[in-house]
Specification:
15% helix, 56% strand, alpha+beta
């Protein structure tokens, strides 16, 4: 098993048992390849994304005509688990950090 696969498996086990998260909800800079995030910058630190754990789309409140967002749960090279939101305005937010 590769180191990356081992780290991912390790975090999936931990994440399924402990789901404590800090809500950040702040804008970040994201580097993409095509439509897929591959790195982001937060608090003057760069984080390379080694795996997209899960992604999905969420629709806002229809009665408020809120735009759709794409959510990515990502694992980084620093062994961090993060939730990124890609807004319809092309803005990116660091929404959560999983502890």
């Amino acid at each position: 098993m590769s180191l990356q696969a081992h780290i991912c498996q390790h975090y999936m086990i931990i994440w399924s048992v402990i789901t404590v998260a800090r809500r950040i909800n702040l804008p970040i800079q994201v580097t993409c390849q095509g439509q897929v995030p591959v790195a982001f910058r937060w608090q003057r630190e760069s984080h390379s994304i080694i795996k997209i754990v899960e992604s999905w789309r969420e629709c806002g409140e229809w009665w408020e005509k809120a735009p759709e967002i794409t959510v990515y749960q990502v694992l980084t090279d620093t062994q961090g688990l993060y939730e990124l939101h890609h807004m319809a305005t092309d803005q990116w937010l660091l929404y959560k950090i999983y502890d």
